[in-house]
Design a protein that fits this description.
The chain is α/β, with parallel strands linked by helices and 135 residues long. It is built from 4 helices and 5 strands. It has one domain: Peptidoglycan recognition protein-like (Lysozyme-like), CATH 3.40.80.10. The longest helix has 17 residues.
Length: 135
């Protein structure tokens, strides 16, 4: 007898789309990207890099933007306009792929000694207007 379960839309296993910053200075070069714990990373120039696939057992999809520290090592929101645009686009695509998942700031799920991703993620999502529309 064949299993005739209804095919699910989306991937119900992913519960959270987690947004981080990498805690790096703007002038730092990040090496060994494959050792980072993120699925996706957004470069200072706004390039989205897929570091590892989302596996069936993953409960979270981890997205990080490069930065988060000023040149003195203090935590700051130093996202570029390009990073903001790609972050928004990436979150839209991921919520389409994982409709049951909730977009969550990293410090809501993980213990950090600072605000991560370093800005009010949910407020930003609610107020986001791409630069080309704001002009």
């Amino acid at each position: 007898m064949k299993n005739r379960h209804k095919k699910r839309t989306g991937n119900g296993h992913v519960r959270h789309i987690v947004v981080h910053n990498t805690g790096t200075r703007p002038d730092m070069r990040v090496r060994e990207l494959d050792k980072l714990p993120y699925h996706f990373i957004i470069t200072r120039g706004g390039k989205l890099l897929n570091l590892k696939p989302v596996r069936k057992e993953d409960k979270t999809v981890e997205v990080a933007w490069l930065g988060g520290l000023d040149r003195y090592g203090r935590h700051t929101d130093n996202r570029t306009e390009e990073q903001s645009d790609i972050l928004f686009d990436t979150l839209v695509l991921l919520t389409d792929r994982f409709p049951e998942a909730q977009i969550t700031p990293a410090d809501n799920l993980y213990l950090y000694g600072y605000a991560n991703p370093g800005f009010d993620l949910i407020g930003w999502l609610n107020d986001y207007i791409p630069a080309f529309l704001a002009a």
